[in-house]
Amino acid sequence: MTDSSDRNLSRLLVRLSVFLFLVSATSSAVAQIRPQRKLLLEVSGVERAELQKGLFAYDDYGGAIISSLPGRISVLATEAERSVLLERGYDVTTVAQDTSELTLRKRSLYGESLELPSIYHTYERILEIGDSLMATYPNLIRRRQIGTTTQEGRGIFVFTISANVNSELDRPAIMFNGCHHADEIIGAQISTEIMRTLVAGYGSDEEVTRWLDSYEIVIVPVVNVEGHYVVTHNIDPRWRKNTRDLDGDGILYEYGEGVDINRNYDFNWAHGGSGDSTNSRYRGEHPFSESENRAMRSLASDRRFLLSISYHSQGEVVYYPWSWRGRTAPDDKLLTRIATGLAESIPTMSGDTTYHAEYGAGTVGQSYPWLYGRYGTFDFIVETGRGSHIFPLEYVPQIVESNLKGVRYLLRQAGGPGLALKVRDADTGNPVEAEVWIPTIDSEDVDRRRTRATGSHWRLLQPRRYGVHVSAPGFETAILEVEIADVGWTDAAIELTKTP
Q1: Which among 73, 181, 277, 430 has the fewest CB atoms less than 10 Å away?
Q2: What per-residue confidence (pLDDT) applies to 1?
Q3: What digits encode the pLDDT tens for the residues 371-429?
Q4: Cα separation of 115 and 289, whole Å?
C-alpha cells in the first residue's frame, strides 16, 4: 500500500470506530429508558403472572409491580398502561398520582401516612424491649455488642438467652438472626418475639425450660442496622443494602449505594452477587469488606453454632445447603430432613398449606453456605411471607406466629442424635482447640470442623458407627470409634498426646 492509501484506511477505521461507539452508546441509552410511571394502582382479581404478560416486568428492586398480596396487586403504571388494564377487564383502582416514584412506593408499602406502621419496631425499640426483658429476667437474657456498622458506626448487638446466662456457658449454641437485607423487616419482628417467648416461657413451658437449661440461644435481631434505620425511619422502603457511601460524596441514603451484606461472606464470594456497585446485590470490593460481616464472623467463630435460622422475606420457602454444580452437601440427608421438617412446620399466609424446602446455591457469598461450609452450622434461610418485603400490618401477627412454630421445630432438633465430644491435653487436662474430621462424611467442599476453645464439639449425626479423627498442632492425631445412639447426644472424650 502507498502512504496515501494507509492514511485513507486509517481515517476510515477511525470513522468506523466512532460510528460503532455512537451506535453502542445510543443502544445502551435506549435500553435504560423506561416509562415514567406516575400512577400507583391497585389491581384486583388477577394473578401477578398475568400482569407480567407483555406489560409489566417483575423485579423486587425497581420493577413496576411493587407487591402481590392475596386479592390485590400494587403496581406503578403510566396512563397508557392503566388503559390497557381497564381494556382487559381488570378491577383497577388509582391509589395515588405523583411525579416521585419514591413517594408512590412509600404510599404502597408504608400506607397513606407515608410512614411505616407502628407495629414494626425500630432498632431503638428492639433494644428497649431487650433491656426491659433483661430487667425482668436478669438470669435468662443478656445483651452484648459484637461490632459496629460500616458507614455510621452504629452498634450491632446480640441477645443471649439461657439459664444462668451470666455464667460462662459451654452448651450447644443455636442462632436466630434477621435483616441482612434492610427492607425485609419482618425478620426483626420474629427475632424480637423469639426473645419474649423464650424468657417468658421459662419455668412454665416444659419445652422452653428444657431448652434454656440445655442450650445457648443467640439472637441477632438486626444484622444490617444501618439499612434497617433507612427503612424504619420512613426514608426509603426499597433499601436493601447497608449505607456505605460508595462514591465518597458524603451524602448518605442515595438509593443504589451500599453493599449487600448477604453477598459479602467469604465462601464462594466471587461466584455470587454482582460486581456492579449500583446493583442491588453488589457483593463489595472483597469478602468481609463490611464490618457487619466481620461482626458475624467473630460471633460464628467463637460460638460455632449447631443450628441457625436467617430470616428473610419473601416466598414462603426454606433454603438450605446446597446444590453445587450437581453436588449436594456432605450432610445432605440430615440437612434435607431438617429443612423439610422446618418448612412443613410453618403455615403459609393462606393457611391451607405450609412452606416448602429447596436447595440453595453453594456458589454464592450468602450466610447459609458460609456458615455451613466454614463452621459446619446447619443454617437455613427462611423466606417469610409471600408477595411483599414489607407487609401490611394485618398480616404481621400471623406471619410472626407461624414462624414461631418453626422456631420450636428447630430447637427440638438441637437434642440430637449426634456426637458431643470433649478434647483435652493428656498431660495437663486442659481443653484443646482441635480439628474434628469424619472422613466417611466430610469432603473437600467444606472446611474441617473444629472444637471451641473449651475443647467441646457438638455435631448432629445419623445413628450408626463413625471413625472420628481428632488432630491439633503439637499433638499426635487420634482416631475415635463411636456408635451414635438413636436419640440424644452420645458423649465421647478424647485425650491428645503431645508429639515427641
Answers
A1: 430
A2: 47
A3: 999 999 999 999 999 999 999 999 999 999 999 999 999 999 999 999 999 999 999 99
A4: 32
State the distance between the two ends of the chain, measured CA to CA, in whole angstroms: 80
| Mean pLDDT, residues 344-358 | 97
Q: Look up residue 309 and give its three cell numbers.
A: 435460622
State in words which class domain 123-413 has: alpha beta
pTM score over 0.85: yes
Check residue 2 and give its pLDDT: 43
Query: Closest by alpha carbon to 384, among 413, 368, 407, 414?
Result: 407
Q: What are phi and psi of 293, to 5 degrees?
A: -70, -35
Contact assessment for residue 480 and residue 470, using Cβ atoms and an 8 Å cutoff: yes
Residue entry with cell 457511601: 245
**Nearest-angstrom CA–CA distance, 398 and 165:** 30
So where are the chain's domains? 39-110, 123-413, 418-496
Q: Compute the average pLDDT of residues 218-235.
A: 98
Q: Are 191 and 130 in contact (CB under 8 A)?
A: no
The DSSP line for 440-485 is TT--TTSPPEE--TTSEEEEE--SSEEEEEEE-TTB--EEEEEE--
User: What does the alpha-carbon distance between residue 454 and residue 431 come to, in Å, rounded to a whole number?
Assistant: 5
Query: Average pLDDT for residues 439-453, to the nearest whole number?
Result: 96
Which CATH fold would you assign to the domain 418-496?
A: Immunoglobulin-like (2.60.40)
